[in-house]
Amino acid sequence: xxxxxxxxxxxxxxxxxxxxxxxxxxxMGSYLGISFPRAEAPDMINAMDRAGVRLLVFCHHHTLxxxxxxxxxxxEAVRSYPDRxxxxxxxxxxxxxxxxxxxxxxxxxxxxxxxxxxxADYHAYAxxxxxxxxxxxxxxxxxxxxxxxxWGHSLYDGPEVVRKVAERYPRTTILMGHSCHGEWDxxxxxxxxxxxxxxxxxxVLDERGVLEKFVGETGSERIVFGTDLPWFNHHYYIxxxxxxxxxxxxxxxxxxxxxxxxxxxYL
Length: 267
Ligand SMILES: [Zn+2]
Description:
CATH architecture: Alpha-Beta Barrel
Order of helices and strands: HEHEHHEHEHHEHEHEHEHH
Strand order of the largest sheet: 1-2-3-4-5-6-7-8
Radius of gyration: 17 Å
Oligomer: single chain
Number of domains: 1
Number of strands: 8
Helix content: 40-55%
Structural class: alpha/beta
Shape: globular
Low-confidence stretches: none
CATH superfamily: Metal-dependent hydrolases
CATH topology: TIM Barrel
Strand content: 15-25%
CATH class: Alpha Beta
Largest sheet: 8 strands, parallel
Bound molecules: zinc ion
Mean pLDDT: 96
C-alpha cells in the first residue's frame, strides 16, 4: 500500500495529526495601518486548528508597542488557552523601568513565558545596546529562548550585531526571526559558528531555494517554524515547507521536532 508522504497527507486534510506544527514566531492583536481578519486569540486558535498547529508562541503587538499595556495581554491570552499558547516576555528598550519590572515578575509566570522577545529594528536600539543588557543577562542565567527580529543589513539586528550577542551569551538559545532576511550566507555562518543560534523561517519562505540552502549547509535540526500570525497564513508557510526540495525527515524536524526539543522544559 502506498504510504502518503507529508505533502499528500497535508493536501488531503489540511493538517496532519502525526506532524503537529509548532509556530514559534507569532504576534496577536491589532496593528497600525493594517486590517487583520484573525488578530485576537479565539480567531487565532481557530486558524491553528485548521492547519494542525499544536502550539503557538507569540508576543502581543500591544506588549511591543504600548508600554502601558505591556506583558499583561500576553499573560491573559496564554491563561485563556493554556494548552495552545505560550508567550515571549516582550522587551522594549525604550522603557528600562518596564523591563526591570517585567524581569522581576518573570518567575510568577512559569505557565506563560518560554523566554524573551526583542524587536530591535522597530525599537531603534541595537541588540548590543546597554539598554538590552539586563534582559540578555537574565536570559543567559536561565538559559532561556530569545526570539529576536533580525534583518539583513540592519544596524540594529543584522548579522554582525547578532554575532556579537551570540558570542556574549552562549547559554542563551537565540532564535533568529526571519534569519537575517536577505543576508542568507551570513545567517548560515552564524548557525555554523554558534551552537546556540537557530534559523526561524517567517518571511524567509518568500524566496525560493533559501530553505534548501539552509538544510543543505547546516542540516534541519537548527531550523524552527514561524509565521508572524496574524500577519501571514499558516497554510501558505506550511505549503512552502512541503514544497521545498528537502525530505520528510527534514520537514518533521522543522515543523515540530526541533520545537518540541527546545520547549521540553516548558510543556
Ligand atoms: Zn514578529
